[in-house]
Automatic annotation (TrEMBL):
Belongs to the sigma-54 factor family. It comes from the Bacteria. The keyword Signal does not apply. The lineage of its organism: Bacteria, Pseudomonadati, Pseudomonadota, Betaproteobacteria, Nitrosomonadales. GO terms for molecular function: DNA binding; DNA-binding transcription activator activity; nucleotidyltransferase activity; sigma factor activity. GO terms for biological process: DNA-templated transcription initiation. It comes from Nitrosomonas nitrosa. This is RNA polymerase sigma-54 factor.
Amino acid sequence: MKPTLQLKLTPSLTLTPQLQQAIKLLQLSTLELNQEIERIVQTNPLLELGDSVSYEQTHDKDSMAPIASDEIASQAESYEETMPSERNELESFSSPEENADWFGDHETFYNTREGHGDEWDASQQAIMPPSLREHLAMQVSLSQVNERDRKIIQILIDSLDEDGYLKQDLHELLEMLPAELGLRLDDLNAALAYLQQLDPPGVGARDLQECLLLQLRALPEEMLYRDETILLVEQALDALASKDFRQIKKLFHCDDDCLRAVQQLITQLNPRPGDAFNSTVSRYIVPDVIVTKVDDAWVARLNPDSIPHLSINQLYADILKRDRNDSAQMLMTQLNEAKWLLKNIQQRSETILSVSNAIVERQQAFFEHGAVAMRPLVMREIAENLNLHESTVSRVTTQKFMYTPHGILELKYFFGSHVATESGGSCSAIAIRTLIKQMIQEEDQKKPLTDSRISEILGGQGIIVARRTVAKYREAMHIPPANLRKTV
């Protein structure tokens, strides 16, 4: 064919930088929004964090066209594509060594090991709680252990995980250490036996069974049912975990009272001895919306603490009003960008509020009676009511939180699947999960409800739920099956 040139008009969507920014801000959480604003403020001198000048005071209505929320929604998809033996060992271990300079040639190796070794800086304890390794190192530094043995213990301390377990096999650890050190497996075993006598009880265990046994052996010998518990953990821990009480009674010839006391004693032990030393930073959620009751109806309002206090710098704004020559062109561009940012933040807040109010309007029974009264709701219903795209509702409800009488909840919490009822209606999956949880909480723990029985009870209430659906909801709430919930 002969090549030809043709002109063709094709409609397409073009995302302006302002529209891209509006979509981006809409899907950010409050924390991410504040971080983004701080970044922009550092690059734009026309913006400042404060209350000096509001958006309304500086916005020129003739210079910018408003961004409609449905325009943001209709172009959201295309934007997303562009974004980018123990005692013997202890006795031999505690005895002084003949060669005190045994570690003289290898000091550098041990100094590079993780941890503080035998040095303990008390000033650090005043700043923050000690870590597990620091806590153990302090105990070793205050003991009468000689230098050589102390450094062997430090090797094991550095090999512990965050829960206080020694997951690494001693044979493997010995092979990793330099052969010039002359360490033997007996040295590591003796050091481990010493480590396992330190606080917290159970530290240095290789597995859960050893961890529990270390804690039980640390209890006073005269403690009631101590020996029986040790025997059970040594020989029938798996049976106890699966709550096979009949087999346990048969093996140990114990009655219900003994078995109940042993079970209670085990539940008081700590399966993660190092967990108390794991310092974690708490992240607090600032709700975007607060729901309150006004005139017998629940309504939503924006949380002022979640709205960024952003304004335009008055000094620069006055300069631009007086002088609009070419030298001020850069500042003028930054002023327009600042106005767009304020506009987009305002648009974001208004969209969140409108979606929240639509949710609250449809979930009045939930705010009055709790999750058991949750009605089925899908995002399409909210989108059609507000004349928004469904993807916009999805963005608005992601990582946005609402303060309610029943706690701080993500807006997505109010949406979910539904189950049919005998009357032809529907029931929210959240309400069904709440009913299942209430049944299990009120059940006879000696005869817990099976998934089939729960399904039958719900059917008697007119809610048609299959057994496998009950099992799915129960597992989603991290509730064990009936055989594991059974008690003596």
